[in-house]
Amino acid sequence: PEDGEEAILIQFRLPGGRSLARSFRLEDELEGVFAYIETASLDVDASAGSLSEAPPTPPANYEHRYGFELVLGGYPRRKVTPTEIVSTGGSGNGKTRLRDVAGLNDARRAIVIVEGTAAGMSPSGSVASAARGDDDSSGEDSD
Fold this sequence. Notes:
The protein is α+β, with helices and mostly antiparallel strands. The chain has a single domain, classed as Phosphatidylinositol 3-kinase Catalytic Subunit, Chain A, domain 1 (Ubiquitin-like (UB roll), Roll). It has a 5-stranded mixed β-sheet, covered by helices on one side. Strand 5 and strand 6 form a beta hairpin. The C terminus is likely disordered. It contains 2 helices and 7 strands; from the N terminus they run E-E-H-E-E-E-E-E-H.
């Protein structure tokens, strides 16, 4: 986010104990948070700056399904889906913005627990870069 934009810093706790952290604008779409988790766990060739394999072209009626869920770490815990339905205050375009999600819209920081498995992530929560032997002991990714 740029200076002056409303933002939230989200710390993600992945299965297996690894964590990631990133700031998002409150105007960002909730599905973008899911996409961030999924892409953060993909095998990226650092020297080329691209995916190690080209992604396949999806079929015409393809609807992506994430293999994980996000759980807001506050009390009470609440699962959030990429197509979270907003009963009030929605942005009106069919896309849920972070500002529309209770628990994310009124905080500057949040802890989100990732339950399940993202693409490129083993069931234990280790990611492809760990399997390659990259030294990322902190597990932090902040923008």
